[in-house]
TrEMBL record:
Keywords: DNA-binding, Transcription, Transcription regulation. This is CRP-like cAMP-binding protein. Signal peptide: none annotated. Residues 11-78 form the Cyclic nucleotide-binding domain. It comes from Methylobacterium radiotolerans.
């Protein structure tokens, strides 16, 4: 099976075959995590870097009363922070949205990997910087975009990120998030999300059916969302999604 992490990192720095082999050697045997279960909990000691090989996951914080805020989404090929092993404990949880095939790279293996390959070291740093840029854009969405702009921007971003790792079919991609998930990511109720989805459908911009999202007019959706792929910092970003 092609290594999704290598595919993702190659979006930031062109990797050699040796780099790809080193990545494969550093990865521990994969394991399955059931949907709607935690991959790692708040307070856990993060001794290794979790890598999403298949499926979708999210970083989130949850209050004692059950309210949850999804703070980022993790897609195939995403490392769950390449330097997390430097921390003493997790300050947030990572949960599986769908069944997830998970790989791991230990802290010592990561140190050895980046010491041996300057390209991999650069790729992991660029990936971390891109994640910080995504986080900033989510903050902009929560603070300044309207509800419909916010959801449109999320759909544009997810399609672009999936396209970069070869997981789209034209203007169609997976969308396994429930309306509750979308609400927890967008800071809105599921009722508001339902209304916004109906509005986007009514404008002829999207179809969301059977856990698949189709963007009928990528340029119009991008204009509505004030979306530009530049913040993703991808060498092979699907710029067509923003035009």
């Amino acid at each position: 099976m092609p290594n999704p992490l290598a595919h993702k990192l190659n979006c930031y720095v062109r990797l050699s075959e040796d780099d790809r082999m080193c990545l494969a050697d550093a990865m521990s045997p994969s394991r399955m995590v059931a949907a709607r279960t935690d991959i790692i909990h708040v307070g856990d000691d993060p001794r290794a870097i979790n890598v999403i090989l298949e499926g979708w996951a999210c970083r989130y914080r949850q209050f004692a009363n059950g309210r949850r805020q999804i703070v980022s989404l993790l897609l195939p090929g995403d490392p769950c922070d390449p330097h997390v092993f430097l921390l003493d404990e997790m300050d947030h949880a990572i949960g599986a949205i769908t069944p997830v095939l998970l790989g791991q790279i230990s802290g010592p293996a990561m140190r050895d990997l980046t010491a041996r390959s300057p390209r991999l070291d650069m790729a992991f740093h660029r990936e971390a910087l891109a994640n910080a840029a995504i986080q900033r854009e989510w903050t902009v969405s929560l603070g300044s975009r309207t509800g419909i702009e916010r959801l449109a921007h999320l759909f544009c971003e997810l399609h672009a990120r999936l396209a970069a790792v070869g997981l789209t079919d034209g203007n169609t991609c997976a969308m396994p998030m429930t309306q509750n998930d979308l609400g927890d990511a967008m800071g809105q109720t599921s009722v508001h999300i339902n209304r916004t989805l109906q509005e986007l459908r009514g404008m002829g911009l999207i179809t969301l059916r059977s856990r698949r999202l189709t963007i009928h007019d990528p340029a119009a959706l991008a204009r509505l969302a004030h979306f530009d792929t530049a913040y993703l910092h991808l060498i092979e970003a699907d710029h067509a999604a923003a035009r």
